[in-house]
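Need tokens for this chain, all 144 residues.
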Amino acid sequence: MEFDKEKILNLCRNFSKNTLMQTLEIEYIDAGEDFLVAKMPVNPNVHQPMGLLHGGATVALAESVGSAASMLYVNSEKQEVRGIEISANHLKSKRNGIVYGTARIVHKGRSIHLWEIRITDENDNLISLCKLTNMILPKRNTND
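Here are the structure tokens for all 144 residues:
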């Protein structure tokens, strides 16, 4: 199957409607054969009480882009993706601007995907380094 960047980005944008991704203004902006990139504005909506980017918002960006990236490798008619573990090392604070989450595949198995997600700012400073493990499951009946 031929790689179609615009089709992938549109798919990610469409399944983000009416979700946490939309609430946090996460936008998918780039894709490649082994990576996916999303951005999120840093503003009071994602601040913790000290006026800095909340670690939970950073992790939400990481899990969103890593889970969406796993979706690119599965047959969505037959399989589902579930995040089962995420870890984050927050290395630098951020008060405003934009952060970017770039997910790159580390391991692509039949039932487990492992992603490294680098959260950087507009100056390419490393804000957080995250690791996400996704389990690939057979699709279930939505009535269950």
